[in-house]
Design a protein that fits this description.
4-stranded mixed β-sheet; VOC family protein; 2,3-Dihydroxybiphenyl 1,2-Dioxygenase, domain 1; about 120 residues; alpha/beta; Signal recognition particle alu RNA binding heterodimer, srp9/1; Glyoxalase_6; about 30% strand
């Protein structure tokens, strides 16, 4: 029997509303923001990611490990070129280090790496 249920990934960032808006638009999930430095996004099944404000936030410096990536999200897309164009319009930046051909590495507006993957 499980001790807990409904795991939630919480991502540190300087502006939870902005980062939730970015990922909400990317995934077409509902965005909810509170007044206490917290925001989350939820899909229609209840899957959720949360974002919490961290003062003096330092973004990861991937692939350098002086400030490790701490976490990253891989998301599947049908077409890498179309996915790239869409996330760049949302405010992502393409990382200069691209170690593979079936995925692309981007940085969200708070500097977290994430990948768009095509199998």
């Amino acid at each position: 029997m499980a001790i807990a249920r409904v795991p939630n990934t919480v991502i540190d960032c300087p502006d939870p509303a902005a980062l939730a808006g970015f990922y909400g638009a990317l995934l077409d999930w509902k965005v909810k923001v509170d007044d206490h430095g917290w925001a989350d996004i939820t899909d229609t099944t209840g899957q959720r990611f949360a974002f919490q404000r961290v003062e003096n936030y330092t973004p990861p410096a991937w692939p350098d490990q002086n400030v490790p990536q701490q976490m990253h999200i891989d998301m599947d897309v049908d077409d890498l070129d179309e996915g790239e164009a869409a996330v760049l319009l949302l405010g992502a930046t393409k990382h200069p280090h691209q170690p593979g051909t079936s995925f692309r590495v981007f940085l969200d507006p708070a500097g977290h790496p994430f990948c768009l993957c095509q199998s």
